[in-house]
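Second opinion, please. Please look over this fold, written as tokens:

===
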Amino acid sequence: MDEKKDITKMKSKKKVAPVVLVYKDGRMIVADGYHRICAALAVQNEAEVPAIRIQM
């Protein structure tokens, strides 16, 4: 799915897939969902995006 489709979903208040965040050695890496994060910021500056956190 691309960013334009994510923006459309977010504007219509539909759920989007969670982003996957990996924490390792004090750093956070976006493993999946970078475009969903960008789309959320395009819709609303402080938008909330569902996420899955993985600690390594």
